[in-house]
Each structure stands twice: as C-alpha cells, then as structure tokens.
Design goal:
Number of helices: 13
Number of strands: 16
Bound molecules: guanosine-5'-diphosphate
Distance between the termini: 32 Å
CATH superfamily of the largest domain: P-loop containing nucleotide triphosphate hydrolases
GO molecular function, one term: GTP binding
Structural class: alpha/beta
Family: Belongs to the TRAFAC class TrmE-Era-EngA-EngB-Septin-like GTPase superfamily. EngA (Der) GTPase family.
CATH class of the largest domain: Alpha Beta
Function: GTPase that plays an essential role in the late steps of ribosome biogenesis.
Number of domains: 3
CATH architecture of the largest domain: 3-Layer(aba) Sandwich
CATH topology of the largest domain: Rossmann fold
Strand order of the largest sheet: 8-9-10-7-11-12-13
Keywords: GTP-binding, Nucleotide-binding, Repeat, Ribosome biogenesis
GO biological process, one term: ribosome biogenesis
Largest sheet: 7 strands, mixed
C-alpha cells in the first residue's frame, strides 16, 4: 500500500513538467518491457527510499482556463478525497491569479498536508517575486523550477515528512477485490449484486486512511473484502462523467487490492481508458480478471462471437495475455458467480508458493532442452531457481552470466512458468541473478 500524492493547479503552471521529472526514469524502463500505452498522468516515484504514487490532475482536466474554472471545485475535492497529500502548484511568471485564490480557499479547509509549490523560479528576481504567494494563506511555500529540478529536493523532503505512515502490504487471508472500470460499465450494479442485502455485510474494517475502507463480505460461499466502497457510496455526490474521476478512484482501489475486477461494457469494447486501468493494475502487480459486462446487449451471438471478442481483448493487453476473461450480465445475473469464483482463483494463484525442489525439477530440464542462446560467444549456464518470498510471484534464476540473458529468453521462461504452474491473471517477475 502506498501513499498517493496529487498535484493540483490551473493549466500551464508546469504540473506535467514536474510530474515527468519525478517519474521519468522508472517509467522509461517499464515502457520498454510492457510495450503498453501508459497513463501519462499517473506514476510511481520515490524519494529517500519512500515511494509514493503521483497523480497529475491537470492531465485529466486539461484545456483552457474557463473549462478549468468550471471543474475546479470538483478537481480539488477529488484530489482531497483520494490523495494523502496535495501539492498545489502556482506560477511565479503570472503571479497570484483569482483562480489560485479560489483553489487556496478550498485547500485552506483541508486537513491533509498541502504543499504550495511556486514554479518557474528560474532566477533571483523570480525568487523575490515568489514572496507574493504568502498572500494565499497557506503558509510556507517552496520555490521550484520544474524544468531544471531546482528546489524540488526541499519540496520532496517536506512532502515525505508529512506523508502518513503506511503499513507494508499485509498478507491477509481474505482476498481484497477492487471493482474498477470506466463510468457506466456496471460497477455499482455488480457491487450491488455482490453485496446483496445488508445482512451479508459482516464488518467494516477501517483501512489505513480515513476514506479507504475494506468491507468484509460473505457471499456465494466465499469470503472477501471489497476495497474502496467508500468511493462508491459517494457516487451520488459527484457525477462521474469525467475520466479523471474514475481514474482517481481506480488508483486508490487498485493499490489497496489483491485482485482487480476490471469491468468493461461489451458494447463499448476495450478502449484506451480501459487499457489504462488494466495497465495500472498490472503495473501494481495485482491479480486481474476481465469481466465483459452487458453481454445481454450483444445481439446475434454466434459460436465465434465470444472467441473473437476474447482475441480482440488479448491483442490489446499483449504481452500479458494470460488473464481470465468472463462474459457476464449483471442484469440477467449471468456468470456473476463465475466472476467471483474466478477472482478467488486468481487470488490463490497470486499467493502460490512453489517449492524450490518442484520448481527446479520442472524448470531445469526445460532450460537444458532450450538454453539461453550464446551471446558474444559466451554461454549462460542456469544452475538453480527459486521463488522469492514476496507477496506476489517473483522468480530468480541463478546463473554465471545474468547480463547476457536477453528479453526474448526471459519471456520464454515466463511462458513456460505459466504453462507449468497456474498463474492465470497474475503478473509475475522473472529475474536472472549471479550465482
Ligand atoms: P501544466 O498544464 O500545468 O501541466 O503545465 P506544463 O507542465 O505543460 O507547462 C506549461 C509550460 O510551462 C511549458 O511551456 C513548460 O515548459 C513551462 N514550464 C514548466 N516548468 C517551468 C519552469 O520551471 N520554468 C520555466 N521557465 N518554464 C516552465
Ligand atoms: P458504473 O458507473 O460502472 O457504476 O455503472 P452502473 O452500475 O451505474 O451501470 C450503468 C448502467 O448500465 C445502468 O443503467 C445499469 O442498469 C446498466 N447495466 C449494468 N449492468 C448491465 C448489464 O449487465 N446489462 C445491461 N443491459 N445493462 C446493465
């Protein structure tokens, strides 16, 4: 479980420049591996060993100042609801604007850490000018220049100091499910179907933060926790018509879950936003089940309809295609039980602990039959492998020259692991290490 930090502020103050600076290096690595279009407004960062998720709210509420004006209250409200700390960014070049003042009024009432970052402070003159931002009534400010990084260290030091303590991911016995997807996919309907009547609710367990809640359910013979139901209960308050809101909600729910139930509307398909949410879950190494909802609305279903639809989704989620896909209808209750059953199975797959002996007995002969190709005339000898003691499956293969094992071979090993062991729906990691 990580902390979430939201960056708010009006357009063009430099939020995305700041964001890119903080997440750059790590993101680049992930991109080359997954090949998936990533959400450019969400990323992981760390500072002095503390990691946190960073959300650039500006990326979701882009556009001109007048659009922003209409959205400003909601943007701030959502950031406040969903984040553990807020960085409020302003621009020394334009000075204090009426819109900055409006945001400041909202943020002064907030009881979460708010850090005021005065951006574009590139020279001494601007450093003097920055003083005017005291008038926002938010106290101390941090002069920074996102383009070259100056001042960001002090800002991050202060941020880390103010972030609430987080517990490490606990190995709970009950699966924690997050129901995620685009607005209107049928999430609330599905959750209502899961919850059934109130009497199925066993207990409310307060999460690590005030608004993240795990609620324990006992339904269809399975026990599980539903994550971030608080956000769903609030639904009537904020109309979730903007992608921004669903992504903000997804981030929190995904981070606190073991398995994500990604719901999509069969009539709308697997578009870029769904892909972003999928990517978020994969990125956080959570179990994933894809639920294609509203299957009742798909007309003229032929023998191949389901197979073709599945193939279409698999093309979108490559290379991580070993994910269960269930076609369901919350309306007619078709395969709702199957959906839960599958999610529980993915939870179990994610908790799999393969014995070292068994792993070696199976994998070493496979490797012997098809060893890593020689690289620069050198032969890689894999001697031994083991699963690491992490909450989700990670495997280490010990060899003489780990640096010579290339990506295609890593993928080959991953595929073999998936074939031999049931890891469906679970992102795994394969490492090669020096013996
Ligand atoms: P956003 O709309 O808040 O995400 O703002 P952007 O990150 O897109 O930045 C808007 C403009 O401000 C871009 O032209 C940036 O190059 C510029 N900018 C961002 N940070 C700085 C800075 O530290 N100094 C200066 N001089 N310009 C900056
Ligand atoms: P959310 O925004 O993802 O929570 O979506 P809702 O649960 O509010 O559902 C959006 C709309 O889709 C509502 O009108 C639901 O009645 C409808 N809906 C949900 N599931 C199904 C389904 O399986 N079939 C059909 N035909 N409609 C559905």
């Amino acid at each position: 479980m990580g902390n979430i930090v939201a960056v708010v502020g009006r357009p063009n103050v430099g939020k995305s420049t700041f964001f890119n600076r903080l997440i750059q290096r790590r993101e680049a690595i992930v991109d080359s591996v997954s090949g998936v279009t990533r959400d450019r407004n969400y990323g992981k960062s760390d500072w002095n060993g503390r990691s946190f998720s960073l959300i650039d709210t500006g990326g979701y509420v882009k556009g001109s100042d007048d659009i922003f004006e209409a959205e400003i209250d909601k943007q701030v409200e959502l950031a406040v609801d969903e984040a553990d700390a807020i960085i409020f960014m302003v621009d020394v070049e334009s000075g204090v604007t009426p819109m900055d003042e409006e945001v400041a009024v909202l943020l002064r009432k907030v009881d979460k850490p708010v850090l005021l970052a005065v951006n574009k402070v590139d020279n001494n003159k601007r450093l003097e000018n920055a003083v005017e931002f005291y008038s926002l009534g938010l106290g101390e400010y941090f002069p920074i220049a996102s383009t070259n990084g100056s001042g960001t260290g002090d800002l991050l030091d202060a941020l880390i100091e103010k972030l609430p303590e987080q517990k490490a991911e606990e190995e709970t016995e009950l699966p924690r499910f997050a129901v995620v997807g685009r607005p209107n996919a049928g999430k609330s309907s599905f959750i209502n179907a899961l919850i059934g009547e109130e009497r199925y609710i066993v207990t409310d367990v307060a999460g690590t933060t005030r608004d993240a809640m795990d609620t324990k359910y006992n339904r269809f013979g399975f026990e599980f926790n539903l994550v971030d139901t608080a956000g769903i209960r609030r639904k009537s308050k904020v109309k979730e018509d903007l992608e921004f809101y669903s992504v903000m909600r997804s981030v929190r729910a995904i981070e606190n879950s073991d398995v994500c139930l990604l719901i999509l509307d069969a009539t709308r398909g697997f578009d870029g936003q769904v892909q972003n949410i999928f990517w978020l879950a994969q990125r956080n190494r959570k179990g994933i089940v894809i639920l294609v909802n509203k299957w009742d609305l798909v007309e003229d279903k032929q023998t191949n309809t389901m197979r073709d639809y599945k193939a279409m989704i698999e093309r979108e989620i490559e290379p991580f295609t070993d994910v269960p896909i269930i076609f369901m209808s919350v309306l007619t209750r078709q395969r709702i039980f199957k959906a839960i059953e599958t999610a529980v199975k993915v939870f179990e797959n994610r908790s799999t602990k393969i014995k070292t002996r068994e792993l070696n007995d199976i994998m070493l002969p496979i490797i012997e039959q098809n060893p890593p190709p020689a690289y620069k005339g050198k032969y890689v000898k894999i001697k031994f492998c083991m699963q690491l003691p992490t909450p989700q499956p990670q495997f280490a293969f010990f060899c003489n020259l780990p640096q010579y094992v290339r990506d295609p071979y890593k993928r080959y090993i991953e595929n073999k692991l998936r074939k031999e062991f049931d890891l469906s729906g679970v992102p795994i990691s394969v490492y090669f290490r020096k013996k």
